[in-house]
Specification:
Elements lengths: L5 H4 L3 H22 L1 H10 L20 H6 L15 E4 L9 E4 L1 H17 L7 E4 L7 H12 L3 E3 L6 H10 L4 E4 L1 H13 L4 H4 L4 E5 L5 H11 L2 E8 L4 E5 L7 E2 L5 E6 L13 E7 L10 E7 L1 E2 L11 E2 L4 E2 L4 E3 L2 E3 L1 H8 L5 E12 L2 E10 L7 H19 L4 E5 L14 E3 L6
Parallel strand pairs: 3-4, 3-5, 5-6, 6-7, 18-21, 19-20
Antiparallel strand pairs: 1-2, 7-8, 9-14, 10-11, 11-12, 12-15, 13-14, 16-17, 18-19
Helix pairs in contact: 2-3, 5-6, 8-10, 11-12
The site of 5'-O-[hydroxy(phenylacetyl)phosphoryl]adenosine has 23 residues, from helix 6, strand 7, strand 8 and strand 12.
Length: about 425
Amino acid sequence: MPYWNPEIETMDQKGLRQIQNEKLVKIVKYVYDCSPFYKKRFDEFGVKPEDIKSIDDIGKLPFTFKKDLRDTYPTGMFCVPDKEIVRFHASSGTTGKPTVVGYTQNDLDAWAESLARGMTSINLGTDDKIQVSYGYGLFTGGLGIHYGSEKIGAATLPISSGNTERQITLMKDLDVTAICCTPSYFSYLIEAADHMGCSIKDQTKLRVGVFGAEPWSESLRKRIEERSGIKAYDVFGTSELSGPLFTECTEQKGMHIWADLFLFEILDPETNEPVKDGEVGEMVVTTLAKEALPLIRYRVGDLASVETAVCPCGRTHPRLMRLKGRSDDMIIVRGLNVFPGQVEYVLVKFPEVSSHFMIVIDRVGELDSMTVQVELIDMASDKLDDYYKLKSKIEHELQSILNLHAEVEFVSRGTIPRSEGKAKRVTDNRKYQD
Ligand code: DLL
């Protein structure tokens, strides 16, 4: 059973807890001293760094939220001066305001270390050729996996997402052994390869897939494994925590959360009290080693469960089980984060349509599709041509905000259900959970 960092990965849980105690005390003092944001938040909450003596005191600390990152855009929560930042990533942002994440060199090293441990745990190493088909750029998927892959000495193919034919040609011609992308994109690649007359199962050397950035189910895993003949592993992370971070091991019994780097709490969203081991609750994460943008009790917005029993692979760190959904209104389409607010932001620019809309997400073949149903209210012209022009103008605006194509479908006034409470803006017809 290969380990990247055996000492830490198999350390007894008492030892790990000791590391967490020490690192929590240190990081709390660090953020209080280095970030006016955190000082103010702690002061308002009536807590001082000295009050935190071990991880048992974590409940004394205030939460942080995605909204805090937006409110302090771009770097108001950072704890280091600009000259120590060596990389930025950023999310697409709801109304044009993205959330920005910064990294020191140590942050990048810890990120790559986290992935190196995970990739080693699924038997990837110097003999492998890894096709990185997550998007490169501001999205963390591509570059994150890239550095993990190079760290373990694998030959890395930084192809990014898209250009499907080339993906398959290079996979075949270079004898690629592993691919990293969203599960929906890989499902599409299987289909596309079939159309090209190339069976991934019989005509390539692919044996491993590292799939994440969006929800997926055990049944999709089964289907992918059967159709492509590979082993499919889950990987989780979010841009605020760095990017992709935690993978399953060959046991496929949950993703190993590196406890020397991150402290996970799973809380009942109503009471904010910890749920029992293995029960589903809201994921709240404290970064124990990040320098540029440490997060204290950050409410990630995902619903999940964690199991703490030692994994049969020998790793002692807690395991994050398959995600159960989100507690906020973010949806993930083709691996990209979409907020209904982004759609609203575009639609209000067009006086011809009402502010009532419905986002409909479907699976067409293996790929997500997104349609926005929009009510026409003020269309002076009755020429079909003008309808098409308006449709394509809205689609163009949506594309530039969302980074993905959404089909606009006009419906007549009054068709979209009105709500007295929280508006339901999304109909998600995909089936993820088994
Ligand atoms: O999606 C980072 C990433 C890249 C993870 C590549 C894995 C692979 P964000 O764009 O900030 O970061 O989106 C984070 O995506 O809060 C979850 O809701 C969702 N998500 C990520 N991985 C999984 C997964 C990247 N394995 C948000 N299962 C998270 C279910 C996932 N949901």
